[in-house]
Specification:
alpha/beta; 8 helices; globular; ABC_transporter-like_CS; ABC transporter ATP-binding protein
Length: 254
Amino acid sequence: MNKLSMSHVYMNYHTLKSETEALKDITFSVSEGEFISIVGPSGCGKSTILNIIAGLLKPSQGDVLIDNKSISYSYLKIGYMFQKDQLFEWLTVWNNVLLGLKIQHKVNKLNINKVKKLLTDYNLWDFKDFYPNQLSGGMRQRVALIRTLALNPEILLLDEPFSALDYQSRLNASDEIYKIIKRENKTAIMVTHDISEAISMSNRVLILSKRPAVIKKEIPIKFSTECNSPLKSREAPEFRLYFNTIWEELDIND
């Protein structure tokens, strides 16, 4: 069953003097519980796709449906993780995680217990009274994800969620956050410039062309050996083949 579908979406940006075509006939669907990544050259419109799904931008043409309903009826089903963790430095981990619930007036015993369980399950309970500047980059990203999960979204949008981290932290954070997303059974769409990250975390990778972006190719990711984490996936024999295929499809050097 399709959790989300984007059908014949076009996006044009207008100024007083010109019109720029950003997206051209973008069509794809995502099954419930699936994790897909979108890769492509810088500036091709990857984040624009996420913003349209989130309802932050209205496409020039086309439809986005969640559970076969317009996103205008479904925006509360979406959680968005940005490039920066967007944590408030003057709030503790506990108060950062509760922030979305407070804004939506959903602080109740049931949700409080859920937040406690998330923090406990993902090794952050002991840090609930810490401030963001006392945490590592990977821990900050976990806090940001738990703040998003506290609102119980069904679809997670991840826009370069690890780009602010150094390489080792990025590997660890992607591994941890992948496991959280899978354990919580969320549907996820991630935009990334990192081909290895896309392959290791995804069921499918969509490759966009230069602007105006079209979907050049869709690569299903399947490993012959069982890989239960992104770090393990990077060791699989097929990993390099997928990497080379995606690299050749990108328009970076055209």
